[in-house]
Design a protein that fits this description.
TIM Barrel; eight-stranded parallel barrel; three-stranded mixed sheet; 14 helices; 15 strands; globular
Length: 417
């Protein structure tokens, strides 16, 4: 039997916050600019190689580059392309991270058509400048979660406040995603798609058994709505298929396991709650539905908890691999810290924290303890803690990682959080 190699040149991945939502009473935000990532692109990418990471999620800001009538200006991402080439980092391009152009109705047919045209143009632009293939693309980031935050909780545009609106919005995002995949593959048939949404688990309050059905529906129906449409399992008239969904990306944070609230958002379960499920179980359950290659597409702890979180998520991921899950990597997100969307406070969850200097510049400060823990896992799984001159020459042997998981008896822990 031939060896199984990872889709990616390193088992650990990372990425940069790139939201461009129209946010509550603030208006349009560009979190890439707030992070000063445009200016610090070379420094940010230079950080990845020495910590052994060869892949980074990166965003193209649809609302900022699409000026209508097929007029696009992608020059803002040129610093990223230059830095990726210089430091030999493979990008996963995120084409829509919670933002769409002003004046566009997200429930209209125009939304689907315009997004597909933009996605085709964006894919062409980066493909012509890519230093390594194939192209990896996330057409719409977290359509199910965006459905909640923009369609039911009114955090961001389109500021919906009802479950029915949320489901319609999520479905339209999935339709636009499918149209984008088809448009991109007209020019780039070998492009790979990474479809990302959170792993969630919702339970009823202990004193409200009457809410058990609603909680169950969110865990097993709503959580999979976008993936099901893109995979063609629901609404097949939209043209989805398993080939379209291609690669699954599971985002996992502690607040993804929640106690149901009738008017949302739900309340995160506290560590030690006996209703928490192991991440291994959530990964296995989601993967088994589609049986496509997958990654943990975002995960991180906070502050001094980052090292412990990495130990837990690596153990859970290896336990899932022992169970047969086709897992190709873990994305430690973000590479550079990000702010709380609501308060603006730095979350201290990146491989590097930031400090604002008197000049206004954001200085990057790597988190030594977190990186030390990463290096220990890299030595165990990849045998290297930094990239060499050609990070694409020695693909990650997934069978070897599976043997390591078996040899170390990696098992899930429901109390891991």
């Amino acid at each position: 039997m031939s060896p199984r190699y990872s889709l990616f040149p390193s088992f650990f991945l990372s990425g940069f916050e790139c939201s461009t939502f129209d946010w509550k009473n603030v208006g349009r935000r560009d979190l890439t600019a707030e992070l000063q990532h445009y200016e610090h692109a070379d420094e940010d990418y230079a950080m990845l190689g020495p910590v052994g990471i060869a892949v980074a999620r990166e965003g193209i800001p649809w609302p900022l580059v699409d000026h209508g009538l097929g007029n696009y200006d992608f020059s803002c991402i040129d610093p990223f392309l230059d830095a990726q080439r210089r430091h030999k980092i493979l990008p996963i391009w995120d084409l829509c991270h919670y933002g769409y152009p002003d004046g566009l109705d997200p429930l209209s047919e125009e939304f689907v058509v315009r997004f597909a045209a933009y996605a085709r143009a964006a894919a062409r632009y980066v493909a012509e400048r890519a230093h390594h293939g194939p192209l990896f693309i996330t057409p719409v980031n977290e359509p199910t979660f965006w459905g909640y935050m923009g369609g039911e909780w009114a955090w961001s545009a389109p500021f919906g406040r009802h479950r029915d609106y949320r489901r319609r919005f999520t479905s339209m995002l999935a339709r636009a995603d499918i149209a984008a995949v088809k448009a991109i593959r007209q020019d780039l048939p070998d492009a790979r798609m990474v479809h990302i949404d959170p792993l969630i688990w919702v339970v009823p309050p202990r004193d409200r058994p009457d809410l058990a059905e609603a909680a169950h529906s969110e865990s097993f129906d709503d959580a999979y709505l976008a993936w099901d449409i893109i995979a063609g399992l629901r609404h097949p008239q939209y043209g989805g298929s398993l080939e379209t969904i291609d690669i699954l990306g599971f985002n996992n944070y502690s607040f993804g396991q929640m106690e149901y609230r009738e008017h949302g958002p739900h309340k995160p379960l506290e560590p030690g709650d006996d209703r928490i499920r192991s991440v291994c179980a959530l990964v296995e359950e989601a993967w088994a539905k589609y049986r496509r290659p997958c990654i943990i597409a975002e995960t991180s702890g906070r502050g001094v908890g980052r090292s412990g979180w990495l130990n837990d998520i690596a153990t859970e991921s290896l336990a899932a691999i022992r169970r047969g899950v086709d897992l190709h990597g873990i994305c430690l997100f973000p590479a550079v810290d990000m702010t709380d969307w609501h308060t603006g406070e730095w979350l201290h969850m990146g491989l590097a924290d930031v400090e604002r200097l008197p000049s206004g510049h954001l200085m990057r400060m790597p988190c030594a303890a977190y990186i030390d823990t990463l290096h220990r896992w890299q030595l165990k799984l990849e045998r290297a803690t930094s990239l060499d001159d050609d990070p694409y020459s020695d693909p990650i042997d997934l069978d070897r990682i599976a043997r390591i998981a078996a040899d170390h008896g990696m098992v899930p822990d429901a109390d891991w959080s």
